[in-house]
Design a protein that fits this description.
This protein has 13 helices and 23 strands. It is an alpha/beta fold. The strands form 6 sheets. Strands 1, 2, 10, 11, 12, 13 and 23 form a 7-stranded mixed β-sheet that branches. Strand 8 and strand 9 (about 195) form a beta hairpin. Helix 1 (about 10-20) runs parallel beside helix 13 (about 515-535) and helix 4 crosses helix 13. The radius of gyration is 22 Å and the shape is globular.
């Protein structure tokens, strides 16, 4: 098998790239995915993400390493293993982040990555249900919509206003310098169904004769001739096969998969590769380094007088919600893990908001998203937008089937700990505000007895977890730990790019799926431009 471009990973980035590159009928693409087709009905019901957080077939079943930041726990580290990748199993939240995120990328020497550069790419991706304007697009593949607004979360919004937060009707319409805002989350949803990258981008491209999708294929390594990537080796159905790339190999396997594949292929820290028995093709010390993720800890309260998701999640109320979803495309089955997001500044040194506090009209057992409590409740999760803690992804062995070592090293930086404390205390203030106070009882988690810094941090370490925003493990830049340049080409290699969330120089301030799709739009544009230059030469 051979194609012009071989793309590894049919997740958010891979689906975008395969679709955009095959718009040119003369360009042939092979897209390789470790998982299967996105047939499982849980994928297409928005609230189905609750049942897919550690799914045996739809996820990689990753675990993070035990670490002091998680009180020695090995936490579930969900990544999608299905066509559409994590966009097929995530909480659907579509928030781009602060304009300063992208300006910061550009300020680090990455040309073409400022906010002004990225806005046209966001607009090109998006089919927004609201009004088109200078930052929102309506003609792209990716359906984005407002969330169904619950009365309980409307009270949350009013509480934020009472504390001085500015209401933002469009959370993706914020401008430079925005501080202390609150608004409704947005979703990658089209009516009643999830709008994954597979169902929006890839679905329109699969009928093209110049695109081939290979599923259930476990990539072992990139094949090199000297320092040039010429193909990919993978296992499928018990057989090892190769597919050759006439122009380039593109890794879009995500912030865990892409560095892992590079390391298995002999690209990475030479000492680490020697330890696991992989011959060194090219020493690149930053591969798998600089890992960032948002760490969240939740607080919960019982609720009286307003309905919550808890009591609707079983029995007759659930049956009613199913019918409501089927006939109206509204209700609990369209919910994301959070419906409202407050962006607040808690550190004096921050120029813009530094904490995201997200609210759900439900509460979860042990404060971890998954199983809802039986009695009515509401919860908030606090996480630092720009964490300073850095972790790693490292191949455990030279066997592709062995899970890599994953450790974001949460809360290892003092600033992150101080920010989290400020965020949790601000969330408590929200529940004390007049708009919410009539409906909530005494704090159930962590409880009113947990007050000191040490007590709150201990609680966060014992019950906090990932926001599923893994990033930065193949970071873009020109410094010693950078893996790709601003054209997303792997330093020191030919015909090899990485295009996914791993290339972020620093994690965006909010959710990462929207930026990942933008990164892939940018990557496709860069590749097309390079092709035009080559043909014109």
């Amino acid at each position: 098998m051979q194609a012009d471009y071989v793309i590894v990973g049919a997740g958010s980035a891979g689906c975008v790239l395969a679709t955009r590159l095959t718009e040119d009928a003369k360009t042939n693409v092979i897209l390789i995915e470790a998982g299967g087709k996105d047939y499982n009905p849980l994928i297409h019901v928005p609230a189905g993400f609750f049942k897919m957080l550690d799914h045996d077939k739809l996820t990689w079943k990753y675990r993070s390493e035990p670490d002091p930041g998680t009180n020695g726990r090995a936490i579930v580290y969900t990544r999608g293993r299905v066509v559409g990748g994590s966009s097929s199993i995530n909480g659907l939240i579509y928030i781009r982040g602060q304009p300063e995120d992208y300006d910061h990328w550009a300020q680090q020497g990455n040309r073409g990555w400022s906010w002004d550069d990225c806005v046209p790419l966001f607009r090109a991706a998006e089919c927004w249900e609201g009004q088109e304007n200078e930052v929102r697009g309506k003609n792209g593949p990716l359906h984005t919509s407002n969330t169904d607004r619950s009365p309980l979360c409307a009270a949350v919004v009013e509480s934020g206003r009472q504390l001085g937060l500015t209401y933002q009707e469009d959370v993706n319409g914020i401008t430079h310098g925005s501080v202390d805002t609150i608004g409704w989350c947005q979703q990658t949803r089209n009516g009643r169904r999830r709008a994954s990258a597979a169902r929006t981008y890839l679905a329109r491209a699969l009928a093209r004769p110049n695109l081939q999708l290979i599923t259930d294929a476990m990539v072992h390594r990139v094949v090199f001739q000297g320092k040039r990537a010429v193909g990919v080796e993978f296992a499928r159905g018990g057989n090892t096969q190769r597919v050759m790339a006439g122009r380039e190999v593109i890794l879009s396997a995500g912030a865990i998969g892409s560095p892992h594949i590079l390391q298995l292929s002999g690209v990475g820290d030479a000492e680490h590769l020697s330890e696991i028995g992989v011959p060194v093709v090219h020493q690149l010390n930053g591969v798998g380094r600089n890992m960032q993720d948002h760490f969240t800890a939740r607080i919960s309260y019982p609720v009286a007088g307003l309905s919550t998701a808890n009591e609707k999640a079983r029995g007759i109320p659930l049956a009613i919600e199913v019918l409501r979803w089927m006939f109206t495309g509204k209700g609990m089955l369209t919910y994301s893990p959070s419906l409202v997001a407050a962006s607040v500044k808690v550190l004096e040194s921050s120029a813009t908001s530094d904490m995201q506090i997200t609210f759900a009209p439900g509460s979860f057992k042990n404060g971890q998203i998954g199983e809802l409590e039986e009695t009515p409740g509401v919860s908030a999760g606090a996480w630092q937008m720009r964490p300073l803690s850095r972790g790693y992804v490292k191949a455990k062995s030279n066997r592709p089937e062995d899970m890599p070592l994953i450790n974001p090293r949460y809360l290892s930086d003092e600033t992150d700990r101080m920010a989290l404390l400020g965020g949790l205390r601000f969330a408590r203030r929200m529940f004390e505000a007049p708009a919410l106070k009539p409906y909530v009882g005494a704090e159930s988690l962590p409880g009113k007895d947990v007050q000191t810094d040490d007590e709150l941090l201990d609680y966060a370490r014992r019950y906090g977890g990932t926001c599923y925003h893994a990033s930065c493990t193949c970071m873009m830049g020109q410094h010693p730990l950078a893996v790709v340049d601003d054209q997303l080409r792997v330093h020191g290699m030919d015909a090899l790019r990485v295009i996914d969330a791993s290339i972020m120089p620093a994690v965006t301030s909010t959710n990462t799926n929207a930026p990942t799709i933008m990164i892939a739009e940018k990557g496709a544009a860069v590749i097309k431009a390079a092709t035009r230059e080559r043909l014109a030469a």
